[in-house]
Amino acid sequence: MRYLSALRGVVGAALFSVASQSFAADCLIFVHGKQTDTNTYTSYSAARNYWVNGSDDFIKTATKNFTTDYYVVGYNGTRPYWESQSAGEVANEIVAATNGTPDAGGNGCSKTYAQGGTFWIVAHSMGSTITDYILGNNDPSDPNYNYNGPYDTVAQRVSLAMTLGGAHRGSEGADAVCGQSSGGCNWFAGWIQDCDDATYWLRSSNDVQVRTYSSAPAKNIYLTGGYEAIFGASACLTGEDDGVVQYASIFACDGSASASYNNSNACGNSYKQEVSGFRNLDGSHENHGDERDDSDSDTRRQIPDGIWTCSGSPCSPNTVVQSSMTSAKFISILY
Amino acid sequence: MNKFSKIAVLSVLPFISSVASAADAPKLGQQAAAEYLTLSKYPEWTLPVPAGAPNPILSEREPDVVTRPGPNGAGPALSVWAGEIRYQRGDTVELFAQLENRASNDADILTTPSANAKGPWAVSGEVVNQSGDTLASLTFADDGKGSDETAGDGIYSASYTLGEIGQPAVGQATSLGFRVTAENDAQEQRIAMNGFQYSHPAATLTGKFTDRIVDGNLVIAAQVDVVKAGRVHLSGVINNPLGESLVIAQTSAVLGEGEQWIELPVYGLPLREAGVAGALSLGAVTLTTTHGMPNALGEVLVDAHSTKAVLPTAFTDKPFGREALLEAAARLNAIAQ
Questions:
Q1: Does B47 contact A216 at a Cβ distance shorter than 8 Å?
Q2: Beta carbons of B293 and A179 less than 8 Å apart
């Protein structure tokens, strides 16, 4: 009986702790990547399922089994990153989330910005490009201030962003598809099947890149991405890559968008596409699909200026810091 | 323990244990908060350039090289690039192509040349708009004539003069692509695509600048010629006397037609922190027409202006106190506690 009482006490304390944590914790706002149709814009379940692969669910893991609040954004992933149905829609939905409005699935942030809430963006692939555009055009001095949405409010209310396999400097896959040179490169990845308007604006040509049309992000954007090759496709990308996006882009490097980087020499925090606001996390042995569906629990490695510490000091680049951890799980331990 | 409690504990325990085992990854919120407190010293319109980093305006304008290998990554790969990332009507666009084997520092890349991938290569191309319509056909040559600097150096060149076809309206810009095909006698083929902007700015810098110090901040005024009223974005990089980039500053304004002056305020604190005594220079400056997307990029002027000699103490020592960052840091720290 005493044992049961003690157990109840432990359980009660654990539940109280979890409840408190849930109340006080950040709200995660998920922004998906490029699409070949408008489904994620018109259908909540499509946007939600972007993060699911069978029984694997990125959002479930990243939110610690749904104990953290979350909101799922859906936008038109066939349009260029800067348009109203992409960046504009994302900005409006993020502000709605910070006001406590639930997403179409009924999930939302229980603590609004006005109530002291904090909000983290979790973006994959093209969602990262959109995040750059919004957070880099939030100030009246920026080139495209509030271009088609409340970017200033987003930047004020969001605490930080994390990007997975972000196309910050475009994608060499997009270059290949739009250049009609996909032969042998096996561009099976769903979002890159053809050179639609979104793909055209995700090429690595500087005249279409987000850095050309935005300034340094108002809040930090933390960078992680995969180095697991996709057979065929990766052979056509420079340096390490997740099968769709090359490291130079995933880690928002300055200089050439097709420079060859790996886990030992990925660009550090002082050589980014903007003078501040981009920060390295790590590299994962996941491909572009794995990054957002929690299906591949695999090795994670430190990169230059990465987040992992070994015995109190930054781990050396390329050190294996986890032997089995998905990016979703990784996010869950960062808050 | 009732069923609900058991499920709750079982679902929670793995996360409790995983948080404990994650001691090697610091909490992101705390890390961001610490950085925000430092960064809050500067306004969004004046940011320090990291020591040793390249001039951010010039770096952004560096044309990217797009490289495409053969099937399954086979060499040689075709690299294509333009001389600039933006051009205007009447400009001659210089386009380049090169076939070479890439360094074998990437395990994914098969760099072994295909047995049939030998020259000579015939290199041709086309300029296309976003819809894929061909605006011009191109013939690349490596003969040392015209836009090709050196014969036989492996760099094939072509040029194209921008005319009325495809010209955007004043204040607008459009993205043009160029697709290059290299083919040899064995029908081995390489295709790569890159692009540039066809820009039609509504306002341009005349090259006249003045400077003064106001309340501990540097203010650079730039004269501009505006042919169509609307919004513009001015950005400039301030260099020290050694030519090293110290800060990047920006401003935006709506200007009427005619000759106008626009002021670029540069917050003084990072200049004071740099400790430079002497003349500062406007290492790079550019005016962009921001009537819509894509913005019409303007020309970059390099070393456009030098200030009078100044002492660091002329600049403010007051942190700007960027409100949004201070608020974010406070909230993140509150959660951490």
A1: yes
A2: no
Sequence length of chain A is 335
**Are B25 and A309 an interchain contact pair (Cβ–Cβ within 8 Å)?**
yes
> DSSP letter at B313?
G
CB B193 within 8 A of CB B80: yes
In 3D, which of A142, A233, A130, A151 has the Cα closest to residue A184? Answer: A233
ipTM of this predicted complex?
Answer: 0.90
**Coil/strand/helix, residue A79:** coil
User: Which of A155, A230, A158, A219 shows the shortest CA–CA distance to A188?
Assistant: A230
| Non-local CB neighbours of A12 within 8 Å, separated by 6+ positions | none
| SS3 state at A313 | strand
Contacts of A256 in chain B (CB under 8 A): 62, 64-65
Where residue B1 falls among pLDDT bands split at 50, 70, 90? Answer: very low
Which position has the token pair 């050396």?
Answer: A316
Using the beta-carbon criterion (under 8 Å), do B196 and A205 form an inter-chain contact? yes
- At A329, the amino acid letter reads K
What gap in Å lies between CA A176 and CA A185, rounded to an integer? 8
Q: Which residues pair with B250 in a beta bridge?
A: B235
Q: What pTM was computed for the model?
A: 0.91
Neighbouring CB atoms inside 10 A of B303's CB total: 12
Q: Which of A308, A201, A296 is nearest to A242 (CA)?
A: A296
Expressed in percent and rounded to 5, the helix, strand and coil fractions of chain B are 20, 40, 40
To test the contact with chain A by mutation, choose from B108, B188, B254 the residue with the greatest count of A C-beta atoms within 10 A, namely B108
Q: Is-contact B259 B225, C-beta < 8 A? A: yes
Radius of gyration over alpha carbons of chain B, in Å? 27
Residue A229 above 60 pLDDT?
A: yes
Q: For B109-159, write each residue's pLDDT tens digit.
A: 444 556 666 778 999 999 999 888 999 999 999 999 988 989 989 999 999
List the Cα angle A23/A26/A28 in 5-degree steps.
Answer: 120
